[in-house]
Amino acid sequence: MELPNKEAYESLIRRKILFFILFISAAFLAFLLDIAVGSSGLSLYEVFSTIVFPASSDPTSSVIVWNFRLPKALMAVFIGASLAIAGAEVQTILDNPLASPYTLGISAAAGFGAAATMVLGLTLTSFAGNVLVSINAFIFSFVCFFVIYFIAKVKSASKELIILTGVALLFLFQALVSLLQYIATDDQLQNIVFWLFGSLENSSWSTVTICLLILLIFIPLLAIDFWKLTALRLGDEKAKSLGIDVEKLRLKVLICVSVLTASAVCFAGTIGFVGLVPPHIARMLVGEDQRYFVPLSALLGSLFLSLASIGGKICCHKGVFPIGIATSLIGVPFFLSLIIMKRSGSF
Prior knowledge:
Layout: H1 2-36, H2 44-52, H3 59-94, H4 106-120, H5 129-154, H6 159-183, H7 186-197, H8 205-223, H9 226-232, H10 236-241, H11 246-268, H12 277-286, H13 290-315, H14 323-343
Organism: Methanolobus vulcani
GO molecular function: transmembrane transporter activity
Main location: membrane
């Protein structure tokens, strides 16, 4: 009996590795395409050679790639990974397949922080311009998080309470944003709406570095508890019987999710479905084992946002197409198809 079980396990591992190889290749190709697509008409070979051999590349191509397109493409990769990881872990700790970072109200809080800066000049820092908007979005995201954390801490961090608190804060901050839109001038309203739709236009090497550092810090923090999070999917009681402090684990993951979401939203605005669709696909392909589920979710999140960026450029040659609209146009029909397939028993 051991040999068939061993062969089945090894076959399952090979299948998971094959998925990783396939999607790494797809994500890398989408990354290069995201840089190549545009009015300059760069080929994939020119993009690749400019990145790998910048000294010997054409000066014009080098400026286009390194100064303008590469930071935006990298931000799509890092933000996609951050939101997908956040979505995967929110679904895990709340045991809700429809949960996402936006369920907790963090994105709406960031939107209010940015809108308040644009309309009222409300700020807790001395920075100016787009930096101020990003910093305030980050600060208000953490205001939302600390409210959820405090209530969850007092009430033993039950998943039902976290969901209800997040939904309540979501509607609160959405109402506040609507109020600011109502009193805003035409120019302010245009800026608010554009920011709420999401954009990678403000990407720079500094924002790329910050997002990368946050990923490098918080992915290992989550990886330490991968076995605990996998066990949590068996239910709270079984996880506790294995010696897991469920409440402490939920609060720790909530902190990591909040930082990952806030860092993504404060630099790119609100981008929907990245924290929802990629984790669903990853779960279908590799199951609930966090060792495979979380990395594949991150990989699919990067691929998803890169494809959305490419689609936005193709749809809007002369202007800036908000990437949040592109993710919704791609994500809504895809997610509906997942729901229909699941209800029909296709997976």
